[in-house]
Model the fold of this input.
Amino acid sequence: MKTQDTAVNYVHDILMGTEGLGLPVYKYTKPTTITPDEFLVINALPISAGVLQMVVVNVNYYVRDKQPSLPDIEKLECKTADIMTLLQEVSVIGIMIDFESQEYHRETSIDYHYSNVRLKVKLIN
Done:
């Protein structure tokens, strides 16, 4: 059996690889003392049990608003496309990534918007 860490680490390694995005990437949460203009947070929902395990992994790309409540749509669109491209171009025996959904959200408390890319990761034991 594998834990959700297997899926999160796999997605993290893809996004940090040699062709990566060139952004800070954090697992599960962003440190509160760091405030970059752009960053990624990768987290996961509970993982199932069995020979074929499934876990939903969220890749959240945050970008500072141009002005309070005004998202930087150009950066959101561009980096979301880059994330999707990197995640679609990989293939490893025993791990499969399926795109589930994508949407934008506003993070009002810190003047950021983010793109949530939701993935279904399947792990074969």
